[in-house]
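User:
I study polymers; will you set down one protein's sequence and backbone structure tokens?

Assistant:
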Amino acid sequence: MYTIPLSKAQFGQQEQILIHSEHFKISGFKYNSGIEALKIENTKGYLTILPYMGQMIWDAKFLGENLCMENMLSEPKQSNEIVATYGCFAFHSGLIRNGCPSPEDDHPLHGEMPCAKMDKAWLEVDEHRITIKGEYEYVMGFGDHYLATPSVSIEKDASLFEIKMRVQNLASVPMPLQYMCHMNTAYFPDAKMVQNIPDEAVKLRESIPGHVKPTPQWLDFNDTLKTQSTPIKQLSTPEMYDPEIVYFMDNLSQFTDEAKFEMEIAGGKVLITRFDTAELNYATRWILYNGDQKVGAYVLPATCRPEGHLSAKESGTLIHLQPQEVREFTVTTGITQAN
């Protein structure tokens, strides 16, 4: 394996090939918004990653399927908050704050990491595997100090890929940690969702956060869902998913060591997400369908529910990293062709 440092000077308005081999093509370019992008292609598809903006995965397309939510953006936008550039396939939510803030919380939606200005980025390359890595040092006077090292890896001829986050507390005092691998998966009509945890562990969110503006039709549908013993298993009533339908899954390690979620779509294809419940013991399901945004996020792995910092603190699910302590989180996701 060898390491290739990246610099912003390599990213121009015209796409430039950085690596071309039998199994991979890697190119860099810059969107009109000025944001740098790295495109990693193999025989099954491609990822478009923003190496200097939180290492978001902006696009993911494999086996001919666009895995990213339908959204209003033609390209990423310069912003410090994810809500102003909400069109990517995946972002790192957290790290000292995460989720939808309550009126009493003091943090932006999904925290400081999604749009973080990365300090550096590089590629790790061998014959069979490509990894993009980056570093972001967060330091606040009289506050928290950490080093985040996200990465994305994909192997040759693969349609699954690996998303990682490594965080180390560099402060002399404990730091709070909330993390979610926020994957905004596309909405596939009539997709079927299955997982290796029991139905009763998939619980409907009954509270209505401030950003949700319910309609009478949605309230009636939500009341019906409250009476059902099983969650929505098939995306067959899109007119009912505006505003969003959200399910929470807590304490996953009581059911399995490795959580596995699948979404079966047309053509015998299956979207898959796997993760270790010792690392990510919570998950969320987010379904939304309207004229501007369509999402079938069948699983968002996390360390707690995405209800903001104070909620996690009150529920006892807020992690604290001791000085110099490291935590790592790994999610494998993508799409396969069923036999």
Q: What stands out?
A: Residues 142 and 235 are 47 Å apart (CA to CA).
